[in-house]
Amino acid sequence: MRRGDWARHPLITTGSPVIAAKQLEAIGMARSTISRRCEPGGSWRMLLPGVVLLQNGEPTDEQKIQAALLHAGEDSILTGVRALERYGLRNLPDTEEVHVLVPAERSVTDSGFAHIERSRRLPSARVRSGIPTAPVPRAVLDAARRTPDRDSVTAMMAESVQRGFCLPRSLADELDEARRGRSLRNALLPILGGARSVAEADAWNLWQRSELPACRWNVKIFDANGNYIAQPDGWCDELAVAWEIDSLGYHAGEEGFRDTLARNARYTAAGIVVLQTLPSRLRSEPGKVLAELQAALDSARLRPRPDVRLG
Phi and psi of 141, rounded to 5°? Predict the structure, then answer.
């Protein structure tokens, strides 16, 4: 190709703005020209070693993902927070990192926003909007390992299960295969027990530390005629006591308030004792909350158990 003809090449005119420098060289562009265009104030940017953005502005998140995969090489797979974003999860920690898995024998290393992890357990990638992406259980656990805040870890695990992206057992199996540490296992225990949020995980842990009767989590309750009553956060089936962890935000507004009143009316009509607790009190006043739970259970023992059942 004659000098300058590369400027009309489809890779430049219609291709992705993120491209490997070796691809530019392959269409006839001199390495010195690439370097000059990527200098401060130039028309292009070198995002990562050997990866060029054919623009001089800040790269988008999508362009960073493309750059990290180009930097990592063939058979690389997006994982962690950026992978979970592609599935539509929302309760994710804030990070600039693009986490990529590569075969164990690959010699590529971290650079800039790209975190490269060599793995002997590469998952089967799922293509999400053109990007090879790790399955949700693997992406959750990879993100969790790099997230120091336990609440953020619990939120990721809980959302992935609550919204049907994976089963609790899938997370447990992934954790077993990875042979990861106790902290992640402890974070997963409430999810395996039925908790589906950080607040419910706090409630689960508080109940586990008590000597209260057995509690089920997020189970559906029906009356004797099979009519749906509610799906309480916690349910003591022995005494027909419901425990609701009711946040102000979730139940605020006319619709949320109306739904809460309707739910509580169904509990009352069915003879179910219900205790409502603010999530913040699970940490600020755990002793008082336990005392309230004990009082609710004691009250329930004074009346015949209503004819209600699990769905």
Answer: -70, -35
